[in-house]
């Protein structure tokens, strides 16, 4: 057994030496090797990210531990333990295929589908997704206004507000009207404070915002409106406010408050300030053309 391991190690070292000599003699191959390694690292990173939080993650940690123990036992010449662990690893591959057969089947079924493109980070156009998120925010805001549920929604733009996000409860959730409405339901753990939307995600809820001075706003406006003006002064964030007393909607922008906004105006202001200014007129025109095409197809 020891002789076999030694022979395998020598062959492995010879292969590495030959490979390095080949790279030295053919510099072009070095570029392809770097690309090869980068792709492998990228795929492994993505797989680890997907595995986290699933039953596969616990198994993956066990496999890593098994590989380390096997390597250590071989280095310390613990022959019996090394033989047993090597055998377990050999047959373990077949066991994994049987245990994770449903997961493997689903992964293969995703080849060529939209879900598989998301694996490589190829998602829909960011401007399109941002516009969809705005529509979801508007839907949630109108529902909150109808029930007179107080709300404070901060939309981060170019200036990051990580210090504000850190004061709340981290969520990192997809933007959805249902979730936004549910967060602000009175007497629930997350309703008191602001929701921050960052990078097309609900980054955190129950966030604390800096309050504007009493001299900056009318006295009849409450804490939510002062907080909205305060954060809009300290950053370029757009803030949507729903009054708990009246159900009226306001927007805080650049330290000023636009009060009593209706649905169409809310949508236009958010699109203009979040999409047009961020992605430019060209992208906005493309989006408008895309919307017109969709409407024509629906009418047919």
Ordered list of secondary-structure elements with their pairings:
Blueprint lengths: L1 H24 L1 H25 L3 H21 L3 H21 L1 H9 L4 H6 L6 H21 L4 E5 L6 H4 L3 E6 L2 H7 L10 E5 L2 E7 L15 H12 L3 E5 L6 E5 L2 E3 L4 H37 L1
Parallel strand pairs: 1-3
Antiparallel strand pairs: 1-5, 2-4, 3-4, 5-6, 6-7
Helix pairs in contact: 1-2, 3-4, 7-9, 7-11
Calculate Rg over CA atoms. Answer: 28 Å
**Relative helix content:** 55-70%
| Biggest sheet: strand arrangement | 2-4-3-1-5-6-7
CATH superfamily of the largest domain: DNA integrity scanning protein, DisA, N-terminal domain
User: What is the strand content?
Assistant: 5-15%
User: How does the overall form come out from the CA principal axes?
Assistant: elongated
Span between N and C termini? 75 Å
Query: What is the number of strand segments?
Result: 7
The CATH architecture designation of the largest domain is: 3-Layer(aba) Sandwich
Instruction: Indicate the low-confidence ranges by residue numbers.
Output: 113-117, 119-123
State the major sheet.
7 strands, mixed
Number of helices: 11
CATH topology annotation of the largest domain = YojJ-like (1
CATH classification, class level of the largest domain = Alpha Beta
| Mean pLDDT across residues | 78
Explain what the structure shows.
A hairpin with a 6-residue loop joins strand 5 and strand 6. It contains 11 helices and 7 strands. Helix 3 (55-75) runs antiparallel to helix 4 (79-99) and helix 7 packs across helix 11. Helices cover 62% and strands 12% of the residues. It has 2 domains: 2-115, no CATH class; 126-294, YojJ-like (1, CATH 3.40.1700. The chain has a 7-stranded mixed sheet with strand order 2-4-3-1-5-6-7, with helices on both faces. Mean pLDDT is 78; it is low at 113-117 and 119-123. With 300 residues, it is of the alpha+beta class. The radius of gyration is 28 Å and the shape is elongated.
